[in-house]
């Protein structure tokens, strides 16, 4: 292991001892990076709705037993590297979706030993807080729009939940590829959607048929990206273009009739962003996706929306409560 600084033996971390309980501040040993890993001094930890589900014991698919340190996303500085790491060196500023599931230590701590394949260099023109807000949501958006739906210039893309965590970066990603973007939201989020460069659709005041007729002359959207799930996914099948349209969902876990999709001759695929961390397969693809995010950020084509609150590790319970209550306005980030 190589390092550029003296590292303390112990670190501060938040530990969830039992599902549904408050986090507790604990002192834990600083992890040692193994083969293919780097030790990151975490500067910021992004908070996602999935984190709150895991904390409540409802994220069984994340396979995170308690007691555990939670937290999926991080941005920080490499302070040591393990064997066989060649892409990073101590002092590098990095970010990634790096832990908090599958038995991996999460990011609500001062340090984490992270598989180097999951990380990417941070763009110089975004802050650590902005970088920590991006990994899960950008990777999900990329896997949906680029890997699955193969978005390209000239297409009409509909994003459900355009002001949400995934949705607001999906708008920016689709626009970067040259698509014309439309996004659904409730009345309080329509202005944000418009500011991101998409045509805002108030889903409470327009039926699927009405907005399909208005914005596609009844043809349907080339891509429909569902970030909401449930009935919204079923409605996506009614909004997609005949023959060549594609629906992709990040929350396609319910039971749905495929008849509307089949009658259009359209296609569907799902995204399960956690798979590489759960299986160990495909981790480098996540790092590569975040390299693309850094390029977009450097070009001014990607900027996450942050909640204005400045929160420390000790405030993390408040951050989780804000997400659960719906009071967060943008991505919440913990300063570690």
From TrEMBL:
SMART domains, alphabetized: PKS_ER
InterPro entries per record: ADH-like_N, ER, GroES-like_sf, NAD(P)-bd_dom_sf, Quin_OxRdtase/zeta-crystal_CS, YIM1/Zinc_Alcohol_DH_Fams
Protein name, entry field: Alcohol dehydrogenase zinc-binding domain protein
CDD domains: MDR6 (cd08272)
Key words of the record: Oxidoreductase
Keyword Oxidoreductase set for record: yes
Enoyl reductase (ER) domain span: 20-334
PANTHER family in the cross-refs: ALCOHOL DEHYDROGENASE RELATED, RETICULON-4-INTERACTING PROTEIN 1, MITOCHONDRIAL
The keyword Acetylation belongs to this UniProt entry's keyword annotation: no
Residue ranges of coiled coil: none
């Amino acid at each position: 292991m190589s390092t550029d600084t003296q590292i303390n033996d112990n670190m501060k971390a938040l530990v969830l001892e039992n599902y549904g309980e408050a986090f507790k501040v604990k002192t834990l040993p600083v992890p040692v990076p193994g083969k293919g890993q780097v030790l990151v001094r975490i500067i910021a930890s992004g908070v996602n709705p999935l984190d709150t589900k895991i904390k409540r014991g409802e994220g069984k698919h994340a396979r995170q037993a308690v007691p555990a340190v939670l937290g999926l996303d991080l941005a920080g500085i490499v302070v040591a590297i393990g064997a066989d790491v060649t892409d990073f060196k101590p002092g590098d500023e990095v970010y990634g979706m790096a832990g908090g599931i599958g038995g991996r230590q999460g990011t609500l701590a001062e340090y984490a030993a992270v598989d180097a394949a999951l990380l990417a260099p941070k763009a110089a023109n975004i802050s650590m807080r902005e970088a920590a807000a991006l990994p899960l949501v950008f990777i999900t958006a990329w896997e949906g729009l680029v890997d699955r739906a193969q978005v390209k210039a000239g297409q009409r893309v509909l994003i459900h939940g355009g002001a949400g965590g995934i949705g607001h970066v999906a708008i920016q990603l689709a626009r970067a590829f040259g698509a014309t973007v439309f996004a659904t939201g409730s009345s309080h989020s329509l202005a944000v959607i418009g500011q991101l460069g998409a045509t805002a659709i108030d889903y409470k005041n327009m039926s699927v048929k009405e907005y399909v007729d208005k914005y596609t002359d009844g043809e349907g959207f080339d891509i429909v990206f569902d970030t909401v799930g449930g009935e919204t996914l079923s409605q996506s099948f009614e909004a997609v273009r005949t023959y060549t349209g594609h629906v992709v969902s990040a929350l396609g876990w319910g039971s749905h009739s495929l008849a509307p999709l089949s009658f259009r001759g359209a296609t569907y695929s799902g995204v399960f962003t956690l798979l590489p961390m759960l299986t160990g397969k495909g981790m480098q693809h996540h790092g590569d996706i975040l390299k693309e995010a850094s390029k977009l950020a450097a070009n001014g084509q990607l900027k996450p929306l942050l909640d204005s609150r400045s929160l420390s590790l000790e405030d993390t319970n408040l951050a989780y409560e804000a997400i659960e209550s719906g009071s967060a306005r943008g991505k919440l980030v913990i300063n570690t």
